[in-house]
Amino acid sequence: MTVAALIQARTTSTRLPGKVLLPAAGREMLAHQIDRVRRARRVDRICVATTVNATDDRIVALAEREGVAVFRGAEDDVLDRFARAAETIAPSLVVRLTGDCPLIDPVLIDDAVALLQASADLDYVSNGLEPTWPAGLDVEVMTIGALRLAAAEAVDGFDREHVTPFIYRHPERFRIRNIRCPEALSDHRWTLDEPADYELLRRILEALVPADPTFGWRDVLALLAAHPDWVSINRDVRQTPNPHAP
């Protein structure tokens, strides 16, 4: 059973252009994310799904430098781009990640994949259907069959932009499961969307990567407990509504 992790990434961001290429601890944010996904033991292949825009040539160059697959597709129809990228690998299970999550935890990826692998009754597993985890640790895993149906049948613009709503908004057709965080941590923001987010993530990566590049989400919590003032860096950034919420 082949498991492919697909990372959606592009350089066009209105609030923080080129955010996935910003540096921290000697590497680009997207490179850090690839490093972390590589540590997921249940992931067989990694692919960066970007756009055909010339501005994303730098993302293609980074993916090639890092030795991972890359697919280029439509900017606006993200579901089509994502599904076509998956078809180049034709895995049994697809892990969806967005390129603004450089702290993504490989253990959370493995946990979600394992849950789906263990049950023939599930089509989709996520840790984002309820707001319990820090923003930036979002993982979705789905069967290739569920993804194909979504790509073929979704017509709503929201569904095409956010890739997976067609699946989790139709529980009568797809069997879904959510993974809750053991602690209530949804007030933490570890995603990259604003300059303040970058400042916080840069500090976290530069503090943790040199000491132990295999750090997990609990290590991030411990670091923030030791530097409580860091939490306020992006506290005023308005949280983007979670597209995974039912």
Write the layout of secondary structure elements.
Blueprint: E1 3-8, E2 23-24, E3 27-28, H1 29-38, E4 45-51, H2 57-66, E5 69-73, H3 78-87, E6 93-98, H4 106-118, E7 124-126, E8 140-143, H5 144-153, H6 157-162, H7 165-168, E9 176-178, H8 195-208, H9 217-226
Parallel strand pairs: 1-4, 1-6, 4-5, 7-9
Antiparallel strand pairs: 2-3, 6-8, 7-8
Helix pairs in contact: 3-5
If you consult CATH, what is the topology? Spore Coat Polysaccharide Biosynthesis Protein SpsA, Chain A
Q: What is the straight-line distance between the termini?
A: 29 Å
The proportion of residues forming helix, as a percent range, comes to: 25-40%
What's the gyration radius in Å?
17 Å
- Shape, principal axes of CA atoms: globular
Query: How much of the polypeptide forms β-strand, as a percent range?
Result: 15-25%
Q: Which runs of at least 5 residues are low in confidence (pLDDT < 50)?
A: none
Structural class: alpha/beta
CATH-assigned homologous superfamily = Spore Coat Polysaccharide Biosynthesis Protein SpsA, Chain A
Please, could you describe this protein's structure?
- Helices cover 35% and strands 15% of the residues.
- The chain has nine helices and nine strands.
- Strand 2 and strand 3 form a beta hairpin.
- The longest helix is centred in the C-terminal third of the chain and has 14 residues.
- It is globular and about 45 Å long.
